[in-house]
């Protein structure tokens, strides 16, 4: 199977975002990609900051059945595609991700863990669901979710062998380094990707925004990580696709052959 994580910038114009998604999907299809993971906030962009005075306007909110998402599914065809958007649900909005093919929706996730600056814009999700796809059982996380080991562990415990993590992860706002690769948040972004893959012995597909929105400068660094925590492909800070070829079930099975972290858990000892 060929899997790919997208590094790209997505702004407020939803029509432009959809057209960009369609172009990237077409490029990925020409490379025989089976799973394509886009960043968080693919449709309408992310916030412009995480504090007072950072208002660049909220991302547009889309209904889960919006025509824009229908266009994404149509573009996906037989490819499995994950995208992020601000979901309108009654009187609340969520930072959401959806996994689709041309046949419809395979899975959904609402971001559970929120930095304080997100609270005015999004309500929190309340769970982590694994779901079946033509490529195997998988789950999704959004951005800050991956900071918490329990999130990825829950998905792995529910059978996910693939985890798609969609991010709009910026450089540090309080102690920004002169070069992105030296930034504290850059180091943490990579650390969490590799640690969560290795802890749970899963294939980890991490996509991130590039460019800037308001005060936020996004890191890129999209990557595919194997179940041993090894980076199989990455984009660094530039826009592009991180593409890796692997047999997910075989890789996960090999990683768990001697040491199977999920089987060897001791929940009774954790209190």
* Rg computed from alpha carbons, rounded to a whole number of angstroms: 17 Å
Unreliable spans are none
> What is the averaged pLDDT score?
95
> How much helical structure, as a percent, in the residues?
10-25%
Described by strand count, sense and barrel closure, the largest sheet is: 13 strands, mixed
* Class of secondary structure makeup: alpha/beta
Share in β-strands: 25-35%
How many structural domains can be distinguished in the coordinates? 1
The first-level CATH class is given as Alpha Beta
- Mind telling me which CATH architecture this is? 4-Layer Sandwich
Shape: globular
- The total strand number stands at 15
Series of H and E elements:
EHEEHEEEEEHEHEEEEEEH
End-to-end Cα distance, whole Å, is: 40 Å
CATH topology-level name: Nitrilase/N-carbamoyl-D-aminoacid amidohydrolase
Domain CN hydrolase: 1-248
Protein name: Nitrilase/cyanide hydratase and apolipoprotein N-acyltransferase
GO molecular function: hydrolase activity, acting on carbon-nitrogen (but not peptide) bonds, in linear amides; nitrilase activity
Keywords: Hydrolase
What does this structure look like?
By secondary structure, the chain is of the alpha/beta class. The chain has a single domain (2-269), classed as Carbon-nitrogen hydrolase (Nitrilase/N-carbamoyl-D-aminoacid amidohydrolase). Helix content is 23%, strand content 30%. It has five helices and 15 strands. It has helices at residues 14-30, 67-76, 149-157, 184-200, 248-255, and strands at 2-8, 35-37, 61-63, 80-89, 92-101, 104-110, 130-133, 136-142, 162-167, 203-209, 212-213, 216-217, 223-225, 231-234, 240-245. The strands form two sheets. Strands 1, 2, 3, 4, 5, 6, 7, 8, 9, 10, 13, 14 and 15 form a 13-stranded mixed beta sheet that branches. It has a two-stranded antiparallel sheet with strand order 11-12. A hairpin with a 2-residue loop joins strand 5 and strand 6. Helix 1 (14-30) runs parallel beside helix 2 (67-76) and helix 3 (149-157) packs parallel to helix 4. The chain is globular. The model has no long low-confidence stretch (mean pLDDT 95).
């Amino acid at each position: 199977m060929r899997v790919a994580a997208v590094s790209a910038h997505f702004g407020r114009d939803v029509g432009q975002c959809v057209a960009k998604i369609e172009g990237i999907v077409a490029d990925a299809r020409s490379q025989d990609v089976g799973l394509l993971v886009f960043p968080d906030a693919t449709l309408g962009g992310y916030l412009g900051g995480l504090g007072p005075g950072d208002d660049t306007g909220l991302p547009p909110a889309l209904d889960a059945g919006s025509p824009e998402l229908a266009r994404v599914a149509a573009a996906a065809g037989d490819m499995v595609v994950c995208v992020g958007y601000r979901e309108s649900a009654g009187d609340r909005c969520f930072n959401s991700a959806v996994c689709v093919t041309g046949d419809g929706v395979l899975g959904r996730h609402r971001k559970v863990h929120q930095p304080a600056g997100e609270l005015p814009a999004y309500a929190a999700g309340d769970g982590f669901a694994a779901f079946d796809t033509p490529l195997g059982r998988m789950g999704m996380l959004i951005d800050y979710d991956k900071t918490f080991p329990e999130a990825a562990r829950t998905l792995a415990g529910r059978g996910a062998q693939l985890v798609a993590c969609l991010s709009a992860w910026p450089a540090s706002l309080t102690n920004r380094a002169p070069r992105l690769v030296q930034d504290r948040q850059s180091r943490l972004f990579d650390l969490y990707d590799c640690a969560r893959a290795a802890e749970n012995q899963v294939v980890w597909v991490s996509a991130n925004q590039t460019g800037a929105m308001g005060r936020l400068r996004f890191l890129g660094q999209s990557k595919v990580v194997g179940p041993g925590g090894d980076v199989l492909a990455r984009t660094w800070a530039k826009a592009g696709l991180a593409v890796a070829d692997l047999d997910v079930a075989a890789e996960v099975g090999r990683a768990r052959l001697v040491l199977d972290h999920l089987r060897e858990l001791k929940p009774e000892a954790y209190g």
